[in-house]
Amino acid sequence: MADFQILPAIDLIDGQCVRLLQGDYNKKTVFADDPVAKAKEFLAKGAKAIHLVDLDGAKAGYPVNHEIVKAVRQETGLFAEIGGGIRTMTEIENYLEAGLDRVILGTSAVRDKSLVTEAAKKYGRQIAVGIDAKDGMVAIAGWVEKSDLDALEFAKIIADLGVATIIYTDISRDGMLVGPNLEAMAKMASAVPAAVIASGGVTKDSDVAALKETGVSGVIIGKAVYTGDVKLENVLGGKI
Predict the structure, then answer these.
(1) Helix (H) or strand (E) segment spanning residue 137
(2) Which listed residue, of 11, 47, 101, 158, carries a Cα 20 to 30 Å from 130's Cα?
């Protein structure tokens, strides 16, 4: 799958590059003080794309780390997507005008479907929706709240609104280094016409190959890239 996208992740809190355990803000590990330098490391290892999350923004409900996000995109030239606290058309436009390639709507997609419809109509493939699931149900507000929405049913609704890309995270696997939920990813990939990017639980190089087999269009790799459990140069170079 030539267009399979591998996106190392940079999650931002207080301007630092962090990872959370299962989305818990109280279980934070700081992996780098300089997100731009970290992104340049990924670039040097062959990365073509990067996944950025403004965790402060996700919690606050509006973008907080905009300047750092913009700097990562401008100083690396990587294809960059950003999520976290983006709730208005103005915030979407600000990121796209700053050079970001794809904007991810999360909580706002649950609470404001008119925003998703408008954004998808205006910006097409530059809009993605992040579906974060816990026990098959959609979680929102930086994973703090669990809704009563079934993740698969919600994905179908979102795809019907014209969204081209869905980023599907299994929160129970995220940051745990226990392996991805292959069954859930395969179900999601086959349930919707949108491209599905898998997130959560990638532990070793072979997990990337296993995810390719599920039919997803890409994978986000977080903690395992920082711990060295996944060698970015291997998965990017096809040595899996």
Answers:
(1) strand 137-140
(2) 47
Task: Name the residue among 235, 188, 240 with its Cα closest to residue 214.
Answer: 188
Q: Which of 11, 56, 174, 207 is an active site residue?
A: 11
Residue 175 has pLDDT above 70, yes or no: no
pTM, entire model: 0.92
The per-type count for the chain, helices as H runs and strands as E runs, is 11, 12
Query: Residue 226 and residue 240: Cα distance in Å, rounded?
Result: 18
Please say if 112 is a catalytic residue: no
Domain that holds residue 70: 5-236
Q: Which of 54, 56, 132, 170 is catalytic?
A: 132
Q: Per the structure block, which two tokens stand in for 127?
A: 């809009």
**C-alpha to C-alpha distance for 209 and 221, rounded to whole angstroms:** 13
Number of domains in the chain: 1
Q: Reply yes or no on whether 132 is catalytic.
A: yes
Q: What is the DSSP letter of 124?
A: G
The pLDDT score that the predictor gives to residue 135 is 79
Instruction: Identify the pLDDT of residue 240.
Output: 53
Domain of 44, CATH number, reads 3.20.20.70
Q: Which of 129, 133, 227 is nearest to 176 (CA)?
A: 227
